[in-house]
Design a protein that fits this description.
Layout lengths: L3 H8 L8 H8 L14 E8 L2 E6 L3 E6 L13 E7 L2 E6 L27 E7 L2 E7 L1 E8 L4 E3 L12 E7 L2 E6 L1 H5 L1
Parallel strand pairs: 2-11, 5-7
Antiparallel strand pairs: 1-2, 1-8, 3-6, 4-5, 6-7, 9-10, 10-11
InterPro entries: CheW (IPR039315), CheW-like_dom_sf (IPR036061), CheW-lke_dom (IPR002545)
Organism: Melittangium boletus DSM 14713
Protein name: Chemotaxis protein CheW
């Protein structure tokens, strides 16, 4: 009975082996095989709002900061939580949960009666047409890389109306990311 190594020696390619007929078959093909277009993944910042995972293109994010004390703005828009001071600039901080129908009203997070922010809460600072603005999120999860084949349009009924800031879905294995147009969410 031949040994296992002798059987494997017949099976595997050796550099000194004569493979002439195989090379002729490869060289004789008329069609050039186009290399598959490689998808370039885009990076998204994933964050949580009321237990759901949302993501925005990371190129639109300037920075992420812990929640500083916010100052109330009397008679401000309902989605404006307050203003914060960041390295010499006063930035408005917005809540997008109401726009996404995750909450009925924005929470009280500014002023002397506001409770301390949850430990994982963060402010995502983005550049808008009017300057820098902050968005309150429950937690920042990760930077996720999604290829175009991993993206889908928002299903019917998800976007539109007040939720027109939902532009699609991203899937990575079993994870689902709701993709937002962050500037539309602030409008």
């Amino acid at each position: 009975m031949p040994s296992l190594s002798a059987l494997l020696d017949d099976f595997f390619y050796r550099p000194d082996e004569d493979v002439g007929p195989i090379q002729e078959v490869v060289a004789g093909t008329d069609e050039s095989i186009e290399p598959a277009a490689e998808e370039v993944p885009e990076e998204y910042l994933a964050f949580r709002l009321e237990g759901e995972i949302y993501a925005v293109p990371i190129h639109g994010v300037r920075e992420i900061v812990k929640v500083p004390p916010l100052t109330e703005v009397p008679r401000a828009a309902s989605n404006l939580l307050g203003v914060m001071y960041l390295r010499g600039e006063v930035l408005p901080v917005y809540d997008i949960k109401v726009k996404l129908r995750l909450a009925d009203k924005a929470p009280l997070v500014a002023g002397p009666e506001a409770p301390p922010p949850p430990r994982g809460a963060r402010i995502i600072v983005v550049q808008t047409a009017d300057g820098l603005a902050g968005i309150w999120v429950d937690a920042v999860s990760e930077v996720v890389r999604l290829r175009p084949s991993m993206l889908e349009l928002a299903p019917p009924g998800v976007g539109g109306g007040e939720r027109d800031c939902v532009v699609g879905l991203g899937r990575r294995k079993q994870e689902l990311f709701i993709l937002l147009d962050i500037w539309q969410a602030l409008s």
